[in-house]
Design brief:
The chain is an alpha+beta fold. 34% of the residues lie in helices and 32% in strands. It folds into three domains: 222 residues, no CATH class; 85 residues, 2-Layer Sandwich (Alpha-Beta Plaits), CATH 3.30.70; 63 residues, Ubiquitin-like (UB roll) (Roll). It is globular and about 80 Å long.
Length: 381
C-alpha cells in the first residue's frame, strides 16, 4: 500500500523498476494497476513471483541480500532497520531469538520487495522527513501461522509501543507487522496532520477490499514551507499543583527532572483553593522519557497525580560551537532565526563553572564568551 501510494503520488515507475534491479534478485516482476477502494481511485502494485523464494526468509538471508545489492547506502541501512525491528518484535511476541525468526510475510519475496521498494521510492522522491497520523490497526481476530490471534497481533502490539493507534472499520487486520515496522522506520513524528503547501496526493491499495470501507493508504507529498524555516516536533507536557512541599526541595526536584530527560521545567506561582499560595511544576519532555518524569514527580514531591497532554511546538534550527574563555571551553548555542540571521547565547553551566573557578562575575564570563564568539565570527568571514 505504501508503494502504491508513492507511485500514485508521482514516483516514476521506470525509475522504481530500474532501481530495484540493484537488489540483484531474479524470479519476480512488478505489475501496476488502477483499482477502486470504495469511492477512491488507487494504485495497486503487485509483486508477481515467477520462481524461487518458496521458503520463509530469515533475517540473516535478508541481510545478505541487502549487503550484496548495489542499492544506495541509505536505502540499504533503512531496509535493514525495518527487518531488524520486525525480527525483534516477532521474536518478542513468539519468544524466540530475533536471528531465528522466519518472516512468513516475506516468504515469497513480495513483501520484501514492497519494503525495499517503498524505501527506495522515498529516496528517489528526495523525501527528507516523514510524518504520520495514528495507525488504524483494525479489529476482530486473524488466522496466522501461529494460530488465531486478536487484532492487533502480538508483533504489531510490540511495534506500536509508544505511538498512537486506534481500532475502526471492518473486523480484520488493517496494519501488519511488516507495514508497521516500515512506517516506524520511516516516520519521525506521529500526530495530527500538519499544514502542507503544494501537496501531491496518492492512494495505495492492498489486497483487501472490505465492503463499505475505502481500504486505501493516503500519502501527501509536499515541500516544507520555506518561509517558516522552523523545525516541528511534539513533546509531552506534564504538570502538577503543589502547596505543601517545602521550598528547599524544589531545587532538588528540578535537578532530578532534568537528569531523567526533561527538556524544560518551570515553577509557576499560583493561588489555589481556599486562597492558599501554591506552585505549578510544569515539565516538557519527549514522549519516551515521560514515564521517568512522572516517576520523579510522584516520588520526590507530595503530588498525588499529574496532568499530561501532548503538545506540538516549533523550534528554531540550532547548532553548537565552542569558544575559549580564560583557557576554558564554553559552548555557544546558535539559533537560526531567519535567512542570514543568527542568535547566539553562551551555555550557562559552562560560564558558571568558570565564574566559580576564577572568582569573576558570571556576567563578565558570559560577556567574554559572546566577545570571543563575535571575534571568531569575524575571522571566519
Amino acid at each position: 500500500m505504501v508503494l502504491g501510494a508513492l507511485v500514485s503520488a508521482g514516483l516514476s515507475w521506470t525509475d522504481l523498476v530500474s532501481g530495484l534491479k540493484d537488489l540483484r534478485l531474479e524470479g519476480y516482476r512488478l505489475r501496476r494497476r488502477e483499482v477502486r477502494r470504495g469511492g477512491i481511485h488507487a494504485v495497486k502494485v503487485d509483486v508477481v513471483v515467477k520462481q524461487g523464494f518458496d521458503r520463509p526468509l530469515t533475517l540473516s538471508r535478508i541481510r545478505r541480500i541487502l549487503a550484496g545489492s548495489t542499492l544506495p547506502s541509505p536505502v540499504k541501512s533503512q531496509s535493514r532497520a525495518v527487518f531488524d525491528r520486525l525480527a525483534e518484535a516477532e521474536g518478542l511476541a513468539h519468544r524466540v531469538s530475533p536471528r531465528d525468526v522466519h518472516f512468513h510475510e516475506v516468504g515469497v519475496v513480495d513483501s520484501f520487495i514492497d519494503v525495499v521498494g517503498s524505501i527506495l521510492g522515498c529516496h528517489l522522491l528526495n523525501v527528507t522527513r516523514v510524518t504520520a497520523s495514528a495507525i488504524n490497526v483494525g479489529t476482530g481476530m486473524i488466522q496466522t501461522s501461529h494460530g488465531v490471534l486478536p487484532v492487533p497481533g502480538p508483533a504489531v502490539a510490540a511495534l506500536t509501543k509508544g505511538i498512537p493507534i486506534y481500532s475502526d472499520g471492518p473486523r480484520c487486520e488493517l496494519a501488519t507487522p511488516t507495514g508497521v515496522a516500515l512506517l516506524r522506520t520511516l516516520t519521525t513524528e506521529f500526530g495530527p496532520a500538519t499544514v502542507l503547501e503544494s501537496a501531491r496526493v496518492g492512494y495505495g491499495a492492498g489486497d483487501r477490499d472490505p465492503k463499505g470501507w475505502p481500504n486505501a493508504l493516503r500519502v501527501f507529498l509536499s515541500e516544507e514551507s520555506a518561509q517558516i524555516g522552523r523545525l516541528a516536533d511534539r513533546v509531552m507536557q506534564i504538570e502538577t499543583n503543589l502547596d505543601d512541599l517545602t521550598p528547599q526541595a524544589y531545587e532538588h526536584v528540578m535537578d532530578r527532572l532534568f537528569s531523567v530527560g526533561a527538556v524544560d521545567v518551570a515553577l509557576i506561582p499560583v493561588i489555589m483553593k481556599r486562597s492558599r499560595p501554591g506552585v505549578i511544576v510544569n515539565c516538557l519532555v519527549a514522549r519516551e522519557r515521560a514515564d521517568a518524569v512522572m516517576e520523579v514527580l510522584l516520588q520526590e514531591t507530595t503530588a498525588l497525580g499529574v496532568r499530561i497532554q501532548e503538545l506540538a511546538r516549533q523550534i528554531l534550527p540550532r547548532r553548537f560551537v565552542t569558544v575559549k574563555v580564560h583557557h576554558d571551553a564554553v559552548r555557544m548555542k546558535i539559533a537560526q532565526v531567519g535567512p542570514g540571521r543568527e542568535r547566539a547565547m553562551p551555555e550557562y553551566s559552562d560560564c558558571k563553572k568558570i565564574a566559580n573557578r576564577t572568582g569573576r562575575p558570571l556576567k563578565d564570563v558570559m560577556d567574554a564568551a559572546m566577545l570571543a564568539y563575535r571575534d571568531g565570527l569575524g575571522k571566519r568571514t
